[in-house]
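Tutorial handout. Part one gives the primary structure; part two gives the three-dimensional structure as tokens.
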Amino acid sequence: MANITQDLSALGLNISQNVGLGKSSTPSTSLAKFSGLFAGLPPGTPLSIVGDSGFFYGPGNFVTFNQLAGIVFFNDPGLGGTGPTLIDVNKVESVSFPS
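Part two.
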């Protein structure tokens, strides 16, 4: 690996940027914004989620949030399946709650 690192360094590249070995020390805006929201929600809370690609999840129910992995567990009856849908918190664009 030293040779690869040296070769990439000669090109002015950082190996962690190119192969994903490193992690950013600053959370993305989306993670910072929505992790607090999901961390405080009780299981069973009805909500809908819009992903960054415009994909609509819900209406459904919040299951849990894994803060370490940044994954939202969400029951969406419209998608079918037997288990919860897993959504990357960095891919969440908006969250709405029924009135």
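Part three, for discussion. The chain has a mean pLDDT of 76. Residues 31-96 form a domain with the SH3 type barrels. fold (CATH 2.30.30).
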